[in-house]
Amino acid sequence: MSPLPPLKALQAFDALGRTGSLALAATDLGVTPGAISQQLRKLEEAVKARLVEHDGRGLRLTPLGATYHAQIRQGFAAFTEAAAVLREADADVIVLSCLTTVLGKWIGRRMRDWTDLAADARISLVGSDTEPDLSQGAADLRIYYGGRHHPPHRTELFVDHIVPVCAPSLIDGHRLTGPDDILRFPLLHIAWDPRFGANPGWAEWGRLIGTRPPPANLTYGLSGSAIDAAIAGQGFVLGQLAFIGPELEAGQLVIPFDLRLPLPDPYYLAWNPDSLRKPGARAFHRWLLGEGRAQGLVSAHRLDSSGCSETMER
Q1: What backbone torsions phi and psi does residue 178 show, to the nearest 5 degrees?
Q2: Per the database record, which ranges form the HTH lysR-type domain (predicted)?
């Protein structure tokens, strides 16, 4: 099989065929007329045929060149059409950006509910701890934490709570008579990124029960990693309710004493208004708000000693 001619040579030939002038072809491609001539020579060498000739005023296509150009033009038209199709397809994708753990431990787990409602909507989920510039199209929607970042279009999604949880195997065979018994086990700490402010940790939870906890045995930079460590039986973690629901239902984690602390800030949903014009975007936006409201109710309620639901104070 003969090798394909160089793309730049084909572009120069196509420009000459479209414009009918060496100078106009050079202007069209933003190069010099000499560069166009050089690429035309390379093309003739590659195809081993005479495609252009001098007519006394400049270059023109030979009859064989005109036939070849008609085919080349179809190819470049196909490139243009393919690019348009790609742009159109990309324009329909709704990009949701989230903090890494929010994506992995919360909204990513709920997406099956959304796809059951709107199977045709095209969603791209991006986990990033860097806040995207929604106004520049870096994402269409963003779930973020805390009030230090203020996009112009945003609303509160939910306030989460933390509670001590562990793997059942960690406390198997141990009798826990009160919340302070938790502090006899290894404690896992989550060190938040400073830009999110201070997160409540074991010291704050200790004040809730009127005691001073010992230093944590292990520290993790991501909530998701600390939760996974607790599932593996490495210790107790102050897990966010939004991130541990399936593990609690499956019995991978247990809450010996349901004493919760609210996070100091809510999670927010921000969006680019122009993005809501995408197919399904407004419905997806409403669905996210509904999921946030539902999570806020779950995180703010616990079972009291009688088994009834009881609202926690914020």
Answers
A1: -160, 165
A2: 5-62
**pLDDT digit string (tens) for 8-27?**
999 999 988 888 888 888 88
**Helical spans, DSSP H, in the chain:** 7-19, 22-29, 33-47, 63-91, 100-102, 108-117, 168-171, 202-209, 223-231, 241-250, 281-299
What stretch(es) of the chain map to CATH 3.40.190.10? 92-158+266-298, 161-263
Q: Is 107 exposed, middle or buried (0-12, 13-18, 19+ CB in 10 A)?
A: buried
Using CA atoms, how far residue 102 sits from 15, 135, 154, 164, in Å, is 51, 22, 17, 19
Closest CA to 268 of 190, 152, 133: 152
CB neighbours of 125 closer than 8 A, spacing ≥ 6?
96, 98, 103, 107, 108, 111
Helix (H, G, I), strand (E, B) or coil at 11: helix
Q: What is the pTM of this model?
A: 0.68
Q: Could you tell me the strand order of the sheet in which 123-127 lies?
A: 123-127, 94-98, 141-145, 267-271, 154-158
Instruction: Kindly report the CATH class assigned to 161-263.
Output: alpha beta
Contact 164, 259 (CB under 8 A): yes
Task: Give the C-alpha separation, 275 to 289, whole Å.
Answer: 16
pLDDT of residue 146: 86
Q: Which residues of the chain have pLDDT under 50?
A: 1, 85, 89, 303-314
Q: Per-residue b/e over 116-154, b at no fewer than 16 CB within 10 Å?
A: eeeeebebeeeeeeebbebeeebbbbbbbbeeeeebeeb
Burial class (CB in 10 A: 0-12, 13-18, 19+), 224: buried
Query: Quick one: pLDDT at residue 310?
Result: 44
Distance CA 32, CA 24 (A): 10
Distance, in Å, from the CA atom of 193 to the CA atom of 202, rounded to the nearest integer, reads 17
According to CATH, the superfamily of the domain at 92-158+266-298 is: Periplasmic binding protein-like II (3.40.190.10)
Coil, strand or helix at 309: strand
